[in-house]
Write a structure and sequence with these properties.
Mean pLDDT: 97
Number of strands: 14
Bound molecules: pyridoxal-5'-phosphate
Number of helices: 12
CATH architecture of the largest domain: 3-Layer(aba) Sandwich
Largest sheet: 7 strands, mixed
Structural class: alpha/beta
Distance between the termini: 27 Å
CATH class of the largest domain: Alpha Beta
Strand order of the largest sheet: 2-10-9-8-5-3-4
Shape: globular
Low-confidence stretches: none
Length: about 350
């Protein structure tokens, strides 16, 4: 039986995606590769119906953090002053990246369990000190879906550009592409898009590429270079060829299944079934369920079972779950319902939860 990954990426692949990744050898300087590259780039814009005159998608090799670091280090001009909203591991990672690249920034810190305090964000933006805001859309630390539409409205009001870590939401949650403040989102192939790890992307306004940092802060991660070459049916470095082959198939499946809205509904249904089952065994969610993304819910570890017992019991039955991060490891565990999870897998999961949790 194939293992079912309930960690927040990489995900369980469909058989067709797994095959597409290794089906044929492809040279990245041949026309077949550039046709694939064009199709994947256009397909990424189509998922959210982004206007191709305004938006572009830039592919690069690496994990989600590569996309995040490329977005921040390239698209924040040398004189940018960044406000970072932190309410988890990934928000803090944004600050770390800004710090490493010498980007002038200030963080609005929160406890990891807390929602964004918009009054504080608004007060800081009102000082007029900040040209850009960066935040995480779905903060995978807790499963919280941050209200980025509200953040985008504040950015419009105060004339700031908004950059988002949409790594664990792109393909399954609403993203404010319509907001004039929103300029870029970082994403990866191996989460809600159901592709393989090693390929990531930045979806951004063409105007942001034009205003990118000059001189560049990085060689490999400088998005204008990737975007210019990809626009010319070329590539600056060896691309993640197999990652593109897999993503092409995965995006075909996403479209056939009804696009991001259908994926959102599917994830929500699965996550709610898991939460419902766990509630019957006395296991509570860490947040009010209305605060969760559809991608991942976090649960309080019950007093009578260790994480190891839960993890090993589920793994033995074919399901891999995820611990809490850092200081939350002792308090919670996480279950994501991304990936190619069938009705049959779900029935087996409910049986496994019963076996592990029922009193
Ligand atoms: C997964 C994830 C990332 C990227 O992590 P990698 O290990 O680099 O793929 C970034 N932000 C969020 C919110 C994530 O969930």
């Amino acid at each position: 039986m194939r293992p079912i990954l309930l960690n927040p990426g990489p995900v369980s692949l469909s058989e067709a995606v797994r095959k597409a990744a290794v089906n044929s050898d492809l040279c990245h300087r041949e026309p077949e590769f550039f046709a694939l590259q064009d199709r994947v780039r256009a397909g990424l814009l189509d998922i959210y119906a982004c206007d191709r005159a305004e938006w572009t998608s830039v592919l690069l090799g690496g994990s989600g953090t590569t996309a995040l670091e490329a977005m921040l280090s390239s698209l924040l001009p040398r004189d940018a002053r960044l406000l970072v909203v932190e309410n988890g591991v990934y928000g803090e990672r944004i600050s770390r990246i800004a710090d490493i690249h010498g980007i002038e920034f200030q963080a609005v810190e929160h406890q990891w369990m807390d929602a964004i305090d918009f009054d504080r964000v608004a007060a800081l933006l009102a000082t007029g000190q900040f040209t850009h805001v960066a935040a995480v859309h779905h903060e995978t630390t807790t499963g919280r879906l941050n209200d980025v539409s509200r953040l985008a409205e504040l950015c419009v009001e105060h004339g700031a550009g908004l950059l988002l870590d949409t790594v664990s939401s792109f393909g399954a949650e609403a993203i404010p592409f319509d907001s004039p403040a929103f300029i870029a989102g970082a994403a990866t192939a191996n989460k809600c898009l159901h592709g393989i790890p090693g390929l990531c992307m930045v979806i951004c306004r063409k105007s942001a590429i034009e205003q990118a940092a000059e001189p560049p802060r990085s060689l490999y991660m400088h998005l204008p270079l990737w975007s210019e070459k990809q626009d010319q049916a070329s590539t600056p470095f060896t691309p993640a060829v197999n990652g593109l082959q897999a993503l092409d198939q995965a995006m075909k499946e996403l479209a056939e299944q009804g696009g991001w809205q259908a994926r959102h509904a599917r994830y929500r249904k699965l996550a709610d079934r898991v939460a419902g089952a766990l509630q019957r065994y006395g296991v509570e969610t860490m947040l009010d369920p209305a605060e969760f993304s559809c991608v991942l819910y976090s649960y309080r570890l019950p007093a009578n079972r260790s994480y190891k017992t839960i993890h090993d019991g589920l793994k033995q039955r074919g399901f891999v779950i995820y611990a809490g991060q850092d200081k939350l490891a002792a308090e919670m565990f996480r279950i994501s319902t991304m990936g190619d999870i069938t009705h049959y897998d779900m029935e087996r999961l409910l049986a496994a939860l019963y076996a592990v949790f029922a009193p």
